[in-house]
Amino acid sequence: MNTSAIYHRPESEFAYLYDQETLHVRLRTARGDVREIALLHGDPYLLRKEEWYNKPLRMIKTLTTDLYDFWLVEVTAPFKRLSYAFTLEGYDGISVFYGDHGVYPLKEEFLQKPNNYFRMPYFQEVDRFKAPEWVKQTVWYQIFPERFANGDSSNDPDETLPWGSKDPDWQDFFGGDLQGVIDHLDYLEDLGVNGIYLCPIFEAYSNHKYDTIDYLKIDPAFGDAATFKKLVDECHKRGIKIMLDAVFNHMGDTSPQWKDVLEHGENSKYADWFHVNEFPASYKEAGNFEDAYDITYDVFAFTPHMPKLNTANPEVQEYLLNITRYWIEEFDIDAWRLDVANEVDHAFWKKFRQVCDTAKKDFYILGEIWHSSQSWLQGDEFHAVMNYAFTDAIMGYFVKKELPMSKMVSEMNNQLMLYRNQTNQMQLNVLDSHDTPRLLTEAKEDKDLMKQVMAFTYIQPGVPCLYYGDEIGMTGGMDPDCRKCMVWEEENQDRDLHQFVKKLIGFRKEHQQIFSEGTVNWRQVSEESGVIIFERILDGKVIRGAFNTGE
């Protein structure tokens, strides 16, 4: 037995409260190494009196990666506290005891010692990872506001181009606004989506609005506070939730705070609002990407027009937390999506979470993180992340043909085992977005392949997010090409694809509980035939998807 591969960590994704009374316990072993595992568990104060170590509870092998097998068992405890350890029987005939001090021979003397056991000292409900139930029932629709619909031409910026007259360039404006979203809510309701994720709508210089000038003001090209209030109210009447994009990692260089720093240097009252490494704050025009290193202040990526905020500064914290509270309390939004969330300190996000929880019950917090994200998903920061690490595996096999089938399965299972089950149920599964080429373009405009990968994704744990226009066959390469104007003329839409997506959304919502809470079972994974048979199982009900990726 490969005992060095055995792993468990208390009060983590390996041992957590799933609901108020149920503890989920996981164990990791080397792949194909262990025949059977049992949990020894009981009250820590009754170990010798009840000898509960003689009452093993069998664990179930759940998911497998290229390196490991993962095992799971659910337990309850009458007094809301638990001691526990594991017995393992290997295929080589060796049996061992595994507890808080590691691996021992399976002998009575080790089983009788209280300190050899892992401990859940008390089932603290306040610490349990909780997530809003409504999120599991949601299919999101991402809108890039400048390109969805022009509902009010009176607020068009100067030099606005005719709608859809060309493929977008970096600086182009086409006049999309919030009234345009309001005008097409019937379309979205008919499609079946019940959550709208809006890219930034606050006053900013660019068309993408990730370079904020004023967080408390709707960008004039998008409308005003009254327009946005109407949008939220109309959405809520239809049962549609609203998620706004919060860009708290950086501001725009036309914001009054940054302009004050440029004018007054280290004497500016905002000097410590940013990470200025050398005054005066300056940069050299980049002839190419590599030249962008010559900046005297920290920025997003190498973009001198997006100076990074110092979120450890109490004044900056107060400023941003007031903004956080304002849009929830004044407009009743339902969720925040947090841009570049992994580059902001954890201490700030913990305060952010407390403000959101206080302002509105069942509020949803989604972080933009493109990699494994355990640190942000412990229950006191975010509810979920944009699940790129999970869907990258799907795209890597189905669409980009970069991964073997077995590696896709391994990567997906590995991601699921990084988080608690209730976390996996909240993750936002995206196949494309304003930051990536469109799905149909990645699929080389093979619409059957697009349908296949969407169907496969929609039956996975987590909640799906549809990028505007994908449902009618829009194409686009890397941004800005993926930010084309929405096509509204039906004769230029793929109505067959639209009907497929509509049915898929309806199917996902109809069987939501199984897709949210059901166990994952890879019934068949055949590299040779290209066939994947994948199941979700809950309370004896099974939904099975069969996908032929071969010839």
Corresponding CATH superfamily of the largest domain: Glycosidases
Shape: globular
Distance between the termini: 40 Å
Number of strands: 25
CATH architecture of the largest domain: Alpha-Beta Barrel
Q: What's the story with the biggest beta sheet?
A: 8 strands, parallel
Treating each run of at least 4 consecutive H or I residues as one helix, how many helices?
16
What proportion of the residues form beta strands (DSSP E)? Answer: 15-25%
Give helix % range: 25-40%
Write down the domain tally.
Answer: 3
Low-confidence stretches: none
Q: Mean pLDDT, as a whole number? A: 96
CATH class of the largest domain: Alpha Beta
Using only CA atoms, what is the Rg? Answer: 26 Å
Structure classification: alpha/beta
User: In which order are the strands of the major sheet placed?
Assistant: 20-19-18-15-12-11-22-21
CATH topology term of the largest domain: TIM Barrel
SSE inventory with pairings:
Elements: E1 15-17, E2 23-30, E3 34-42, H1 47-50, E4 57-58, E5 60-64, E6 68-75, E7 82-90, E8 95-99, E9 102-105, H2 108-111, E10 118-120, H3 133-136, E11 140-143, H4 178-183, H5 185-191, E12 195-198, E13 202-204, E14 212-218, H6 225-237, E15 241-246, H7 256-264, E16 299-300, E17 303-307, H8 314-331, E18 335-338, H9 346-359, E19 364-367, E20 384-385, H10 388-399, H11 405-416, H12 421-424, E21 428-430, H13 439-442, H14 447-458, E22 463-467, H15 495-510, H16 512-517, E23 519-525, E24 531-538, E25 541-548
Parallel strand pairs: 11-12, 11-22, 12-15, 15-18, 18-19, 19-20, 21-22
Antiparallel strand pairs: 1-2, 2-6, 3-4, 3-7, 5-6, 7-8, 7-10, 8-9, 13-14, 16-17, 23-24, 24-25
